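Pasting as-is:
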Amino acid sequence: MDAGTFRLERASWTSLESLGGPQGTATAEFTDSQGRIWFGFANMVAMLNGDRIKVYSGNDGVHVGAVTSIQAKGAEIWIGGEFGLEYFDGSRFHALNQADGSALGGVSGLVADPGDGLWFSENQGIRHIPEAQLRQRDSGKVGIEIFGVLDGLTADLRGSLSTPSAVQTTDGRIWFATTLGVAWINPERVIRNVVPPPVFIEAVIANGRKYDISTSLKLPPRIANLQIGYTATSLTIPERVRFRYKLEGQDKEWQDAGTRREAFYTNLNPGSYQFRVIACNNDGVWNETGTVLHFDVLPAFYQTVTFRILCAVALVSVLWSLYLVRVHSIEQRHLERNRAEEMLRHARAELAHINRVSTMGELTASLAHEIKQPIGAAVTNAEACLRLIDRRDPDLPEAREAASEMIKDARRAADIIERVRSLFRKDSSSREIVDVNEVIEEMVVMLQKDATRHSVTMSTDLMNGLTKVMADRVQLQQALMNLMLNGIEAMPDTTGELSIKSQLQEDGDVLISVSDTGEGLPAGNADQIFSAFFTTKSQGTGLGLAITRSIVESHGGRIWATANSGPGTTFQFTLPAREDAVN
């Protein structure tokens, strides 16, 4: 017969493996009150119910290693193994640990006492889980009693080397296999220690020096190492007395010291402290009152309130001094900036005057260019007037109209000359509310003959309700005339088109565009077209666009030129709208 686990039934052997169970030999076996047979293997438990078998593994919570013992307590199945203790709740297995969270070691020899919980062998001795603890195991942690050498167990337990390693006889005693024979314990005769142990503070050592605790304890500043010794008296197995302590002001929770009888702290801050320590006896009865030690850690000179106040005063003084220095510096810079701005304004005024005077020569040279149109128009109207008067039947109405136009042209020439004189006298130009569309229409009428002579068609696209501007009307006419004449003269040999457009920008400024279909911007010199005396015309003075730029900039606007996508150039300039000039 091969190795394994077998069942004899009707003179026939059946292997557990053939029924769907694990391979190999079971390490533990138990039959419960329902007739089900439980088999233990390595990290595996098989339950045989008739011919049906159910296998529980790690996925079902079995993690005890090799199963050494199986026992039932009521409807629950308990298993012990080399890695601890688990119980079966009907669907899966759950681990059970000690109250401090530590796991149990090798468990064997489970004995379920109907009225006194669970007894078993463990690496460190005989263990007992009271019935009350078993009923409170939801957290997976229980209080466990230990019976070892201090309780009279003079030999090591054999554990899984004996099967079973623990049994309970009819007289209630539980027998355990040991290396020197057997040992027994009678649960009914176990005497419990119900007296809580009194707790005492024995010594306080700070920075290697021992202090008297019988009086008010005051420790020196800068405590690097503090050692507090404590103890508790118990006449029953004092070696199993356990302690917990807490330094109020330092520890947030109780510190479990186990059986250690010293507490250690480092680098305590100045202040008042209370050290509390409590203890429990060998049967887990706690003295919740314990004892309390009051002590103070004195501050160093730099940790005192006085020193901190002085530091704060010094800091405030320094900050206030820095503030005063900063304010003085700002005031000085403000005064210097005001003086510099005043000097700058004066220099700008002088520079503007010098610039205007220095350009008088250029303006004088360009005077013929500027008044050419009104004088030419006046001459034309005078000649027409003479022809109308010299007729056999003089046409006086037409002659009167020609004379009126001649007067207007002369007055326009006089206005241009007056503007030049105002520049020399430092006078500000005469500004008024101007309708830009009206000025554009006037210039279209004035330059119509020039456009016709060059076969140029003029058109306008004027925005209805365009915001009026505050401007010098004559200078605005002069700027428009220069741009329109420049566009007309740029189309000498072909039938061209000159379009003038007005519109309002998003920022509220008025935008005027003059577009032609002429030769376009000069290649390589497009950025010089607004410079004085720069021209591409054989008869040009190079001052028309320069004067136009000066006029636009004096009104707070700006001017630029761009090449069209087709032939020609578009000149554009802006004029700022004024609140009091809104239509």
